[in-house]
Write a structure and sequence with these properties.
The complex is a heterotrimer of chains A (about 300), B (about 575) and C (about 325).
Chain A lengths: L1 H10 L1 H7 L2 H18 L1 H4 L40 H37 L1 H16 L2 H15 L5 H33 L2 H9 L3 H9 L4 H25 L10 H9 L8 H27 L8
Helix pairs in contact in A: 1-2, 3-5, 3-13, 5-6, 5-8, 5-11, 5-12, 5-13, 6-8, 7-8, 8-11, 11-12, 11-13, 12-13
Chain B lengths: L3 E11 L4 E12 L4 E6 L5 H8 L8 E9 L2 E2 L4 H7 L4 E4 L3 H4 L6 H12 L4 H14 L5 H4 L9 H13 L5 E5 L7 H18 L2 E6 L2 H7 L2 E6 L2 E7 H6 L4 H9 L25 H11 L8 E12 L1 H5 L15 E12 L3 E5 L6 H9 L6 E6 L2 E2 L9 H4 L3 E4 L13 H12 L5 H14 L16 H13 L5 E5 L7 H18 L2 E6 L2 H7 L2 E6 L2 E7 H6 L4 H9 L8
Parallel strand pairs in B: 3-8, 3-9, 6-7, 7-8, 13-18, 13-19, 16-17, 17-18
Antiparallel strand pairs in B: 1-2, 1-4, 4-5, 9-10, 11-12, 11-14, 14-15, 19-20
Helix pairs in contact in B: 4-5, 5-7, 11-19, 12-17, 12-19, 16-17, 16-18, 18-19
Chain C lengths: L1 H28 L3 H6 L5 H10 L6 H14 L12 H36 L4 H15 L2 H15 L12 E3 L2 E3 L4 H33 L3 H8 L4 H39 L4 H10 L3 H29 L1 H9 L1
Antiparallel strand pairs in C: 1-2
The chains are: A mainly alpha (about 300), B alpha/beta (about 575), C mainly alpha (about 325).
Chain lengths: ~300, ~575, ~325
Amino acid sequence: MLLKTFDKIYDTDVGYSFFNSKIAIISSTILFIIFLCSIFAGIVAPYNPFDPASVSLMDAFTPPSWSEGGNPSFVLGTDQQGRDMFSTMIYGSRISLIVGFASILFAMVLGVFLGVTSGYIGGRYEIVVMRLTDVQLTIPSILMALLVNGIAKSVISQSMHSEMAIYVLIFAIGISEWPQFARVSRASTLVEKNKEYVSASRIIGLSNILIMFKHILPNILRPLLVIATIGLALAIITESTLSFLGVGVPPTTPSLGTLIRFGNSFLFSGEWWITFFPAIFLIVLALSINLLGDWMRDALNPKLKMR
Amino acid sequence: MSLLKVDNLNISYPTRKETIVASKDVEFTLERGEILGIVGESGSGKSTIANAIINLIDPPGEITDGSIKIDKIELRDNEEVIQKIRGKKIGFVFQDPQTSLNPLFKIKDQLIETIQTHLDLDYQDALKKSIRLLEEVGIDDAEKRIEDYPHQFSGGMRQRVVIALAISCEPDLIIADEPTTALDVSIQYQILELLKDLTKKRNLGVIIITHDMGVIAETTNKVIVMRYGVIVEQGDTKELLTNPKSTEARSLVISVPPTNKKIDRFKLISPDGKEITSDSKNLTKKIIKTWGVRENKNQKLLDLIDVTKIFDEKSMASSFSFGSKKETADKVVKAVNNVSFELFEGETLGLVGESGSGKSTIAKIITGLVRPSDGEIFYNSLSLYNSKRKYQIDKSRGQIQMIFQDPYSSLNPRFKVRDIISEPIKLFQKNISKAELIQNTHDLIDIVGMTRQSLDRYPHEFSGGQRQRISIARALATRPRLLVCDEPTSALDVSIQAQILNLLKDIQDELHLTMLFISHDLPVIRQMCNRIVVLKNGSVCETKEAEELFNNPEHPYTQELIRLMPKIESIV
Amino acid sequence: MFSYFVKRLLQAILVMIVVAFVSFSLFNFVGDPVISLTGEDSSIERQAEVREAIGLNDPVYIQFSRFLGNVIQGDFGISYQLKREVSDLIAERMPATLELVFVSALLAIIVGVILGVYTGIHRDSFISNIILVISLAGVSLPTFIIGIMLIYLFSVILGVLPSFGRGEVIDLGLWSTGFLTVSGLKALILPSVTLSLFQMTYVIRLVRAEMMEILQTDYIKFAKARGIKKNTINYKHALKNGLIPVITITGINIGTLIAFSIITETVFQWPGMGLLFINAVYFVDIPIMSAYMIMVAFIFVMINFIVDITYYFIDPRIRIKDEMS
């Protein structure tokens, strides 16, 4: 049974392309491992760096185990508070991934809904949504996220800051990313709208909602998937940038960006590993997602001829 | 010495699954002053041969064997020589004048650049030559128009410019790949006359690739019939069309709708050469049971009174203008202008006209896809549009259905065939039991002549003709009384067209359907319709009984259309 | 021709008014400007005084028109945190950001277009593949990491370039420039490379995709069939068509650069508007935040306007459509 489904997938154009692209296989494997690690952080990480009991200042600034002064129980060394680098990275990646996924999901739901409805319904509604998208598209996501973050911070009382920070962040990044989903889904909807199967559905008498979400939506998913993947990488990078700047996740639940910020102050004094390892981890994460997205874009593109 | 000599040409496309043979052992010659036609249905490889001669086959296709000689010069595997020959000795004309010209360069620049690439002329001389070329292909006011951009020319004019470009460096051979398929009948006639003229005047060898047998009959001296990459028959045009020997050629010739008489059914030849005469009478018996018998009361089913439709900026922005590709119109377009006609139960009314005649728009107004700007439309004495010009779909309740032109976009690629057909059934019979639903779906797929296994497949697994059958099944699912057919076979090969049209005729007979048949193809209209409405630029020219119209056309436009349509009988 | 421009101009003004309104709302409804000015422990009377003095008791539309009037004259209020006129702060810092953005934009577009065209035309060559791999890295590396890496390599290890600041700056009255001194130019190198990298890779990929698509069109095929030489087709026909979208993205480019300059200025401690803004967000300094918003929106809108005008002169289809109506 499993073999049969495997065969069926391999037979499709996309499946074939996947299994023959070393890049696609490698990057998705890496991603898969990272996902598993962050979900099961409790098991994978040797320590829980957020448990004050397991952290001791005495262990601070331990270099990686293979260099002089290293300690085999802290494989990649410790940071300025004595937390194990490896563990903090695993937990940090979890935060990065959660924020990344949640914000893209938010952006996608909002963007696709607005895009499909404005493309299908047209009229003044479409013009308004498109103006909104145009204006927001000229504002880069970083700026948007910063602004929303800043405004939210001044609206929410001081005490709630830490608790709400993650939700605000997800909202901010999501708000900055929805326009591209809206634009692509609107463009695709306009193309599908002119196709005769939509006209046929109208003549049969199907309701507009059914036509939009049962007939048109499944046909526009491909380009959306590509954007979602590349958007995920962008969201993760945006989150880490915001955290690096100090306006992202609270320091009590550091993401990879926060860790890099911590380590930056010690870069010149020689404790390079506190910045280096989280940076590498972030790069590998972003790179894998982008490679996968790149492969997806080529594999799902009907215009590129098969070679 | 022949101008062109092709020997043993073999072309294949290696794909990951298999190697597709696009052409096998193709051999023919062409002399100066001759027009050779290459005809065949889609997938026959005719375009590939043309592309192979100038080595512009799309990768991964490649020539695997054979030789192509022009004036004894070998072209195959000789990229250097081919570079010099392209444009200079061989001129090429592509199908779509809309996309053949670079939109950012003036005609003048495109012409002069081509001329200066091959001929040793300075700018002024090249310019003079370009103007003369435009005059030769029939463009008035050439000196002024040469400063224009491609999008400022109409379709027919653009194709003339393309021809001018093709002959600009005095080639000996011209290859035209479906040069008139995208053009109206009257324009098509002019372009073909132009090609015949140029052939004589310049003593050229011309290859015309087409699927239209009428064009072959009226334009070519010799013809090659291809099928699945192989030449099945070739010879003198008159000979071959009067007396086709191979099954494929016979099938092609016999399926073409005659232009000079009316026949009952389109003739078909089965693969083993015998004529097909069966029809779908038996299959419709089951459907009739579930639908209930329909009496033919000969009442007026559809009444259009002074219907007008104007497309302008405002109506573009209005909601729900479906399938209206006029989105790019930036001036006011009166697509339909005070059109009136009646449709009686049981008859087939034809709407015929060229592009811009408004026939498609009328179909969309009747089915509620486009709102009329003015006028009344009555179905069964009930007005289809209320005072706010909103389509009252409950007045027609599935009784009006439509079959579309493009088989590739009329079925949702993500739905299985079963779901495509059963969805309308479920909509109209909300409490239908699962068993009944399956039974209905089976009946419908049977009636259109497809297997039950097809129900579990997806549209992309089927050919154009099969997809149209599925469309017909879907249309019948709501038990319609009026079937609007908008160019249902224009995108299909001629033998498939014959099958589908026969199917439509049978279904109409058995289920007492009324049909509104829209087409630009006069012979097809003649065979399918009882009465015909001729449209031009949105207005009605004349309305007559079909045979009357063809034997005694009154309106000058109708006369011109009938005179200019390519007739296969012209040569016989 | 004028109707086209006027239409665009009106749209631009409309956008500015909307942005100004959002900015105005920030001022009025977010946080309490009175408390920020007088302090949390001030008396109720004092607060009422101040409230009246800065006009918070007037109806909204009057406040908004006053706000607009101020903005047009360049008065953005006083920074809560730094207690200085916001317009002064911005004027001080703008040259730094603009110089940085200008150089980065040049780098990104010139290098981006050249490499993009090359990889589009020579699809599968070895060099193309290398360029593409590097460009992928550019998209995957967050700007701040690139900055840190460059600092580590060139400042800490090699010690040839400065790791922060603008170097020596010459004051030309309204504008202070770093272009005219050696140290100023040296200081510009790392930040501009960092800033341009992300955009450069984006440009490379876009131009490449455009070129590849154009090379498969019918009119290119027809040009080949007429015997036009390959180089002419690639660099004259295809390129002209391919550059049109580049003009659009140039507009967006500069906008994004201004935004990303926030990060770069933070990493390199570059005294520009971005650094000012980030501190404002940190300390919730509303006047600076809203002033930044308006300034940036203004620059975006102006650039879009210029892009629209350029389009008009390059794409004949737009020109003729306009002339016909």
